[in-house]
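Bench notes, afternoon.
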Amino acid sequence: MSDHPSPNDPGQRSCQPCTVCCVALPMPAGHIGAECKEAGVPCPHMGTAGCRIYANRPEACRRFECAWLADQAWLVAWRPDRSGLLCLREWIVGTYRAAAVYELRAGALRSDTGRAILAELQRTCTVIAVTDVDGNRCNLTPGDSLSPPPPRRAA
């Protein structure tokens, strides 16, 4: 499998088989079911190979785009389930692009892939909020050295 989308790809990526957002993100009641879905709890529509209702998924899921899904230039290796990082981007006040990066697996921020993702986000965003797997948080701006939160300390 290539790290880039196929040249024949019409420009539309699919989440499948990644289900990171289906577990990591909270959802208010009424968006995917009658009850709210807490962060860290799998979506009730999630199956062993991805979303069981992907073709007919709720509107909130259709509109959501992690950075990998939104940016065709991002490598397949940067997909959240492969990289261990969930990256979200949005415009703030219509002028400034910001990103939030959540480490899903210990060490993902310090991996070669993690460093490449952070470098790309620094190139394209004004500020990046980085949260490691233990909940430690730091902010990076374009001029900062690539220093994600410090490694975990042994208890």
